[in-house]
Records
---
Amino acid sequence: MEYLPFVNIKQGSDSVHSFSNGNTLPLTQLPFAMTAFAPQTSSESSWFYSPRARVLEGVRITHQPSPWIADYGTLIFMPQKRSPEMRPIRRRSGYRPDQAVLSPHFMQLDFLKSRCRLRLTPSERGAAMELAFDSADDNWLSVLPLCGGYEAKWDACSDTLRVKVDNCGGQNTVGFAMYTVIRFAPGEIDGEAILAGTENALSNADNVKGEMAGMHIKLKGASLHAALATSYISYEQAERNLNREIGERSFEELRENGRRLWESYLSRVEIETENEAQKRTFYSCMYRAFLYPHKAYEPDANGEPVHYSPCDGKTRCGVRYTDNGFWDTCRTCYPFYAIVARDEYREMVRAFVNDYLECGWLPRWPSIGERGCMPSTLIDAVLCDAAVKGLMDRDTMEQAFEGMLKHANVPAPNDDYGRSGVADYVRLGYVPIEAHKESVNLTADAAYGDWCIARIAELLGKKETVRVYDERAKNYQKLFDPETGFMRARFADGEFRPGFIAESWGLDYTEGSAWQNSFAVPHDVEGLAALYGGKEAFLKKIDALFETPPVYEIAGYDSEIHEITEMAAADYGQCAISNQPSFHIPYIYGALGETEKTAYWTERICREAFSYEDDGFPGDEDNGSMALWYVFSTIGIYPFCPGKNEFVRTKKLVKSVRINGRAFDADRYAGHTVPYEDLI
């Protein structure tokens, strides 16, 4: 059976700044590949693609993991006719979205203004591209930057264009550049007519350098065939990537290779459904599961992995991955990879540890450089899950453990690294109001991180460390207020912040209120229940969460953030399934043995809040994390606590499931958990 026909890569892309239906991009990209491609419909913001737009500004090389992070290392390819334009508003062309072909391994777009059809199929670090104009007169391919510095040089002897761009957000990168080599088929380019320069200063030239410069390649006829590859290291390395990944392979060979590769990933979980819509939603989500993190390493002349290190700009040995927010992805993505992408997961954790060895801190939100976008160090859960599931060798584990201990105890010189408020956390056992905003989440995440440290210490035979960090893992209890039944922020003197309102968003809580953020204790749900007086009383609190209308107040934000709007729109009480802090909430019932209540909510949410359509998610999809909430809930399991070798069970929502070629039926388990060993 083929699964690609069920994938809509536009799922979740119908989003705007104020309301997210996914905030995704339709990426034509190989699994975990370094380089992706997407249509650009507007350059005015990070929301550069809309499925509703009727115009195109070109096809973009993109690495963007989220519009909130923004892009880096971009180039835009635009077919034009007669006088080529630089500015997006001048060059843009009408197109018919319903006639566009957008799939994981192939893109086809018709530019109406230039009467040109563009076809593209990706490799791991590049692509093959074809243009077909309707006539042979005055046709161009513009190769343009999005922003920043641009260098390009045409080599007539080899029909090759070399382009360097340096656009990169964030402060934690040194000497970043993307080098692109574009090799054209012999005899298709008029090398004497190439235009180069800036918007107001174009001239015939074979090279150009400057801010927002660009180059326009003149075709001799109506067709063009090109192969390209990128590198973060050098032109020489980009040439190496081009020869290794594309070489003399035809467009159709590359397209077929991409199709086979995607089918091999999508088929790792096979389902039979009652209806096609459910299958389309499921495999569209499966596609999103394998986009991030992006590889950021390249095979050298000997085939050994090397990478650009953003900490110092040097080329280093070993693997590297980027474009991932662990605050989001630790909850679902890596536990999923532990089942169906074990080799890739091994390589990823090695790469994350390489970051620690190179810059002194484990990554939090790397997007080529460290962005530090979300709080805390939930990479602890990623590393712990890999360790307990046998996906980390001893040396890597020792190095990871060293990095985890560092950020658990040592303040970082830069707020983008380490645990925020760590000095006070170590001293008081919680992050006080005075130390940092969102102190409730920082404390809960630190306690979970401490539990993760204890589990790795256990594997390493460090008994005293296990004792210390198991005790620290109970620190969440210091914020519990028995009077209100919520986790509340404290001052350093131990007093709670006055004027508590459970529905008040922000301030002491990350992207939520006390309702969404008081139950983030996946490592000790039984201990959390005990604070309420036992399982029954605690589950009544969770009942109340679902029964309380999605009302809210705004305390820590200047205005209503999109996550608030999405919670109210979804209307599952105070369960904001639109955002990661609520992902585990329906599963709290199941974690305490009440599987039927979990099944009620997961079935309802999957049915009502998810689809394969362009507006198919209830909130930010975030690097596969929300897509995999749907995948897990559909097949009947959930990784309630990454770092434990078990999954909480719910009712499967399909007729049958096969994982890695083996039948799996969550409904056959009598207990409320499924052992990890049964899934691999």
---
Amino acid sequence: MKKALVLAAALAVLIPACKLKETQAPVPTPDVNPFFTEWTAPFGTPPFDQFKPAHYMPAYEKGMADQKAEIAAVAVSTEAPTFANTVEALERSGRLLSKVNNVFGMYTNNHTSDELQEIEQDVAPLLSKHSDDIVLDAKLFARLKAVFDQRASLSLTPEQSRLLEKTYKDFVRSGAALDEAKKAELRAINEELTVLEVKFGQNVLKEDNGFTLVIDKAEDLAGLPEDMKTGAAEAAKAKGLEGKWVFSLHKPSCIPFFQYSAKRELREKLFKAFIARGDNGNEADNKAIVSKIASLRVKRAALLGYKTHADYVLEETMAKTPAGVYKLLDQIWKPALAMAKVEAKELEALMAKDGIAGPLQAWDWWYYADKLKKAKYDLDDEALRPYFELKAVRQGAFDTATKLWGLTFTPRTDIPVYHPDVEVFEVKEADGTHVGILYSDYFPRPSKRGGAWSSAIRSQSAQDGKKVTPIVYNVGNFTKPTAEKPSLITFEEATTLFHEFGHALHDLLSNVTYESLGGTNVPRDFVELPSQIMENWASDSEVIKTYAKHYKTGQPIPQDLVDKIKKSGQFNQGFTTIEYTSACYLDMAWHILTTPEEKDVRAFENAAMKTIGLIPQVVVRYKSPYFTHIFTNGYSAGYYSYIWSEVLDKDAFEAFKEKGLFDPATAKSYRDNILSKGNTREPMDLYKAFRGREPKVEPLLKARGLLK
């Protein structure tokens, strides 16, 4: 659950825990804590210019204490339990805690520091305990069960019925029906898991920043585009290494290096560092943490009455069971693996022309795939970059939403930001009605974790008869501008920007009463539908010309380049598909375990990859020690969700292709039945309301070139 209900801890236990570091000087508390005041910036946006590390723990303390009092009032009430005094009261509790937790989470992911990481470690077990104090409260659960048992006679609206059902199931799935001994065991597991998951993420960030490839000879830059050299020189200068070139493990730096560097030994060095993150035998080594997390998840699943952690997780998804996940993965894996083997032979043939006998290695794939792509399609990704200026791509995403739903995006310079890279936009309906606020934060920095994501500081809801509008942010790690050029990104990065914007739209266009049912608070294998469907507009030849314009001349991308992009759309799909899908299998392997003994992580992972027949020329997209999706970011037994949602998005986009990319009726139906509804109905019911039937897998297989 996204709601604060599962996030908090009692003040009575918080105070002793905070005294563990009595030898340290007390942190001075500012006179005014912005979490305790009304936010006066436009639309109630956070006063980012006021937050200090010392504000968080007092705000967490008060937020948890406030919610504890609110929950106690519900649990001990002498009134007969009703939907309003029990279910709605639970839903509305913890507003201060939600506020501080959403802001703190935004900082720890987007712009962290040593101080914030220390607070994160301290507060994690407190939040875990507070969550358990709520869901394991016997009196509270008895009242909730009383309402649930009489649900048929309550004359609830469909959304109220959904909230009641979800709240009751969340309590049961969180252990509310267990006896006291098992509840105590569950509390201990949850607390330990919370601490381990935080530590895992912090270790990955350390490893991301812990290695750099420093080049001091110009000849070692062979094959690299001039823009890359310039960026690497500026990165070196920032580190006090003027006259040298620096490449990091952040993807905007290392992936292009794998793709273009003619120095095989340097590609190997950087690649091996990239896949060794969290597995270096240092203080940031994650292997023991991975093993312990997996073991604890086995124990927790068994305690709650499930065969495996995957069974526990998948019960609340569209896939429903591990068998449902494997059925889809197996359909895709077999043709993709066969295609990847053919691709590997083609690349080895190119290596032979370079006088390299082989065999093809993982650090060779990007380099020779790029050569093959140029040979087959006369398409150079670097030749495309000048047409994908980041702000123009973002405007292209905005314009797509304008054409579909009449939305407008107005820059706001009067709203505080948490970093100078961040920009703010007010989102409005065609008639000028305020929809929400969107922050964009697109460049890498040491204080930000890798990847791209979207989240909300405030989710949409209706409170006290008034609509609460959302505050959403999109984050990426795209190529930074240099002194000579703006941020010029790859076509793949452009589709990523559209992807995250799709998540933002899901939150922005939510129209529900209850926050916990709104926006992206949906099953993992449904949440990627609104994001992935936007990628289809990003690559459509009609749309791409509206935003892909040369950053110097303003001329639209030539038709011949658009044609080449389209023709190359299925290029290297064997590699792309098995690199991703192997990570799905690895995720499932960790989470279908039935016994809690800890594993040798390397041996376990190697065995999992051998079972599916992953070829040695391809490394699983995320090796276990840096697989943040499943060990810290909530995608455990759920990494398959991207490909599951791709089945949905490819099938759903067919509706637009049939009626027109910007057909008003189709766009309205998609907004009304998918984007606005959140989790107010079963996902498949929402999908069928839009599409008129269940999705078909064929459009996905066709799009990836896997359909014979």
---
Amino acid sequence: MQRTAKLLGIKILPSLWEHQYIVTEPDPELVAFRQNGAPEHPVLRDADAKWYVREERGGWILGPYEEGAPACFEYAVPDSFRADLFPLDLERIEEEYMSMIHRIPSSETVGLKDDYNGPICYTPDGNPLVGPAPGLRNMWLAEGFSFGITAAGGTGYYLAQMMVEGEAEIDMASLDPKRYGQDWMTTEYAARKNEECYAHVYILHHPDEEREACRPLRTGPAYDRQKALGAQFGCVNGFERPNYYGPKDAPSNFDHDARSFRRGGWWNFARQEAESIRKTAGLIDATAFAKHRVFGPGATAFLDWFTCNALPKVGRINLTYALTDAGTTRTEYTIMRLAENDYYLVSAGAWEAYDGDYLRKAEEDFWAKTQSTGQWFAIENVTTKWGVFALAGPNSRAILNELVRDAEPDTRLSNKRSPWLSVRDIELGMVPVRAARVAYTGELGWELHHPIEMQNHLWDQLMVAGDKHGMKLVGARAQNWLRQEKSYRAFGNELGRDATPLEAGLDRFVDLSKEFHGKQAMLDKGIRSKCVTLLIDGPQDADPWGREALFDGDIRVGRLTSGGYSVHFGKQIGMGYVKPDYAQVGQKLKVMIMGALYDAEITEDSPYDPKNVTIRVDG
């Protein structure tokens, strides 16, 4: 697999692990069970013991996933290796074998028929690589399967749909081969993450889980400052990003111990952070955003075809979407127009390589469609050149005015000079900043895009100025709650390759007066479901995370795609998709949380400040 990838000039990062399994002699009790007319015995999985057991010709197969299984062929598979096996190391899986005997007492007296130790394939997140190869046309991957038989039928079915119809009927982004940042991820990184995945196959997973291997690796300059102030980090595209800020003196395992299906130890910290943005101000590190520059005489024509919204004027910002061939949402971009033919595109941090590959392939499609040989343009990945701090809250303007250097101090960041959805260059102390008047939290705020090498100086200045105005440091979890109060769709949650922008309720960002890639396919899809926001009277100790089922009586009518807690409404909040007949404001539904049904009601879009008064407030 790795050798073939090199021949194709692409980089894929599965690696191989030694995996042992045992086949027993026939178990008399199992044989009698089947002779009495019983069907094939169900597969047993013991997550605590880290194994599965299934029936095999009257006996059992034990497949363990123990800690410490060694990697094999980390850097290259020898030419001489075919379907060979490795030497056995049964002592390594003795604990799992004894656990099987405990769970299936009849297996204690059954002899071992065969035992094997062979290579098994893993990827850095445990999911296979399924979909179009990076950088290549009509080249498809289906690699990295640790559960090959289990996934085979579905993989073939959905991969065929992508090949023939342009997209699968479900969103396959979580398996896309480009979901990793191929440029920065090394063989060593992949091997260590794959090792972690193997040991995690049968570990209980929590929705707020952050795995520890290979971290920290990609860090912004302010990482050490944030860590010293209690930051508990998540990992996005290899970047360390604060999830929330805990106690400054927290032990190294504080975040791990906080994990829970209910409100973990992090919850009150996130709640206080969300409240600070609504009441005073909060500072969020958004450096992990993916950033691309598209520039040159043909940039405007290309982006006008590539995205579904009208392009912004110079100095302005528009939210827009690139569609798949099937008319569904492929990528969300915030486009800032810096000059007549110079655009700065910001997209989700987790999808840098994914978005970049799509941009470059769309460039080829554009030239083929227009048959044009003039008006060149270039695409440049500038993700690691620019850091980003998001400052938001009622006091955010006052904080920036402490630092901004401008000849007209009375109108420095007023609506007249820096209106909502505008971008301009300012100076904050000694740092040149591209200040974008946007806020993913729904408050007055700016994104401060700055040269990455000046990040620490800017951080220090903002901390001093913010202290005067009640600013708190805020992580990604609080931001996720706040954006739901504004019904802001998130890529990978509400936005994906299984729904169109119109189904997502983003009609205002679709300009049907122009032609754009995927337009007709989008219109042909119609409205199969609608994205809505719901306020939920849920349990006192748990919130939805997304993927929870929505019911009308006993009928399942949709599902959540995001969930959390609303500090403004003092209850749970969620976003999701329902059948069109159920998408009216005021519709009462039930949502399944922790195995019980709770009341939920569809509310208007942007239930917090629906008229955007706070965002546009002048000063």
---
Amino acid sequence: MPRIAHRRPYIAPRLTLRVGVSGHRPNKLVGSDWEELRRRARLVLLCLHDAALRVHAEGQSMPGGGAYDSTAPTLRLTTALAEGADRIVARAALAAGYGLHVVLPFPKATYERDFVGESLEEFRRLVVHSRVGSCTELDVTDKAQDPLAYRAAGLLTLAHSDVLIALWDGQPAAGVGGTAEMVIEAHRRQMVVVRITPGGEVRLLKATAQAPDPMREEAWLPLELTETAPYVSTELADRVRALLCVPEDEPADSEARHSRRPDPQPVANKWLSDFRAEAVHSHTYFCAYELMRKIFLPARRPSFRVDHRFAHNVATAWKDTRDAAIAIGGHGLWRAIDGGLRERWLRADNLAIHYAHRFRTAYVLNFSLAALAVIVGLLALFSWESTEIKAGLVGFELLLIGAVLWVFRVARNGRWHERWLDYRRLAETLRPARLSALLGSSPLATAAVVVGTEGERWVAWYVRAALRELAPPTAVLNNDAMVRARQVALQEEIAEQIEYHRGNAKSLALLDHRLERTAEMALWLTIIGGLVYLALWCWDEFAGGPGAAKMGKPTATFLGGALPMVGAAIFGIRATADFRSARLQSERMVTELSRLETLLKAQEAKPDRDEVGRLFDQLSRTLSDDVRLWNMVYSGRELVPGF
């Protein structure tokens, strides 16, 4: 297992623009000028290229340095190299400087039976072209010419595309997996769709918020393309920019926020800049929360040094994924998953753990120090006649209150709470993406507009940019590949998550119960202390006692003030941590993951590709929903300066 070479969590993604093609075979292009179609496709691809270059240049000139890697953008066309539209656009892509990634509906030898003569020779020349980055062969059916295989190849092409070029007459599909079906699916996925008619007209599908059914002509905008550089179409460039650009900080001024700048200038994203400045942490001394757990859940001896187990995770994480990736697509597929997903996940997980300890330590300290400040103030009752001792206690009390405010200020200015949530969201989004990658697909949903909070926006951008780097693998995706990917899902994803959530639910329930009992005990002790004092008072008052009530008054007052403060501090810790909601969510996750585990185990002998893919999607959504609900629980648990 290769060790991570550097300790900066931010791995700058290489700007990647993914283009797919779908279109007619030669029988529907009779009478078309193929050279003109190729020329028009080349102009579209050059326009996309220029738009990507502009986004890249803008990202590089952002204050604080480039968000994208400084390497030139990757331009990728995914195609099945079928006769007609696929090869027309493939030739145009090679002329425009794009790389090709080939997705075949059948194993190569079977697919070659589709072609004869010069067409077969052209296919063989293209599939081994020097700019072909990979060739994915689907082996999902035993039937030659099965339309479901062509549909599977089309959907895999869409999965690896941000922009679809459709050489299409606008008519309904003649069968399963036709161009019309792919255009409708691309529209559903909110992809950028450029249509080239058999007559050479170029049109752009309107943005999703405005677009009617793509089968209707009013859904399409005509595009005017220039014949010379720069090959810029404003409408198309704007759509590409919305896909790829780094999200800017939201202006404080609402008018500025909604105004459209004719020539956008690069604006820093402070959340992304914070991430770029981070470093990997092997351990932390922010240990108050862990010490509290060790006190109430004694298992190991307490330590002031909390190990993040980063080196252990680097050495052991995703071993099953590694074995499956090498078996499916060789070391090339594993290197792509390792560098694109695993390394980024390790870093995000490390930061999430680190800031979780910081934030939790902050609120445990704040409530504890606030309670201690009250207790110190009450100690003056025992030395009421000594002004020196009282002054010292007051000074110590002020010092404790100052420490509470200092911890609050440092944690708030350092955004420990927000960073914890952001980095956990990032880690939990990257981890399940490996399942789609093992199936040769892309886990990336191609929505053009990133919405949500500031944290959600930069995390979504970074995940999208990272996942775009994953190309279709050079592999034969057959039943064996499906079995291996299914095993990874069962063992390294579902089983580990079930084990984690079961243990988490159990420990949270026990911790919450013991904290509750401790707070309750503090209140009972307050009552007992008060009753004892009342009994002593009655003895002195009515039975001529020795004045025990007067002697015990400082102690009774101290306990009457200190013990409720201890209970209040524990209540504050429980309210901020919200152990109950977290426990219930873990229990729900165990139930849902167990259901998916049962369904995946049923796909044991000969897994169905569509069913396994659907279950993988459900698993990803379940994990995403868990992160979303987890964020909802904790996003409102911000740090407060004491009670």
